[in-house]
Amino acid sequence: MEVGIDFTLESSLSKIVKNRKYMDFLFTEREISSADRLAPGKQGEYYASRFCAKEAAAKALGTGFISKDNIKWKDIEIIGEKGSKPRIELHNNGKSRLKKMGYKNIKLSFSHKDNYVVAIVMVY
């Protein structure tokens, strides 16, 4: 079992949310589409939690985003349908890395408080 954790301020992503090119680099179309359906005041929290969760997942996978395994931001997708707990779906190098580690499962938990977001990811 491996664990990754990350912490961020929602306000630290405010410039990213305004830059579509950077958002396209960090987030999948499905993540962006989900955010677009939210009220503008909720989008910052949404993106901060996804960013934080992706960082935690990359740490749990033992690579971060700069490594020889070359995990990309979009290789880690945070899925959260209304009324269900958010989950991680791995793609491409993220999926390969999990398999290479000998694990099959990845779990996510995150929490919001005021301007803060924390995410914990466990692979097992």
Automatic annotation (TrEMBL):
Biological processes, Gene Ontology terms: fatty acid biosynthetic process
Taxonomy, superkingdom: Bacteria
Alphabetic keyword roster: Magnesium, Metal-binding, Transferase
MF annotations from Gene Ontology: holo-[acyl-carrier-protein] synthase activity; magnesium ion binding
Lineage per the UniProt record: Bacteria, Bacillati, Bacillota, Bacilli, Bacillales
UniProt protein name: 4'-phosphopantetheinyl transferase domain-containing protein
Species in which this protein is naturally found: Rossellomorea aquimaris
Record domain 4'-phosphopantetheinyl transferase: where: 3-121
InterPro entries xref list: 4-PPantetheinyl_Trfase_dom, 4-PPantetheinyl_Trfase_dom_sf, Ppantetheine-prot_Trfase_dom
